[in-house]
Amino acid sequence: MDGVPHRGFAAGSWLLVAAATHRSGDATLAGLIGSQVMAANKTSPDIDHAFSGRVLGHRRLLHWWGLPVIALVYTSIPFSVFWGWMSHIIADFIFGKAGYGRDKGVPMLLWFAHAGVGLKSGQLNKRAWFWFFGPVLRDEKGRAERLPAWVAPDRWFASLTLGAGVTAVALA
After folding, report:
1. Domain range annotation of the chain
2. 41 or 160, which is more confident
3. With pLDDT > 90 as the criterion, what percentage of the chain qualifies?
4. Torsion sign over Cα 20, 116, 71, 80
5. What pLDDT sits at residue 140?
6. 3-class state of residue 142 by DSSP
7. Shortest CA distance to 89 belongs to which of 42, 44, 34?
8. Which among 113, 117, 70 is positioned nearest to 91, based on CA atoms?
């Protein structure tokens, strides 16, 4: 899972958390921005792509669920930033595949004892997007429209709805 689905997952799950906790529109928007800080790229747990080894390699210590919890309890990080970090870890728990000497998912104990589901995200995203919007995305001859690759609507939509869905199940 790369940056776009991680950001969509964080946004979808944050919007549901904001609705469930009755946040104002301003707080929801600020939280949406805050959730993106730790969701993907160099400010996310994926900074560990730059490291190798048993402790700091990819999906090792920086993907342990305890770090964001410790940061939330012992520092003053905003809850939305915490949520972006946790959503990244939750998404990797669901979609993180095995490799590089570790099992699928994320570490349960510091940088070891990985657990996760290991689903493939690509096909699920495409199917979800075209199931919902496929009939709309047709040209005048009935052929499927091609959108620019940078838009990645299938990845954004599926990860956004998946993030909201996972959060809904957790809150129920």
Report:
1. 3-133+147-171
2. 41
3. 8
4. negative
5. 53
6. coil
7. 44
8. 117
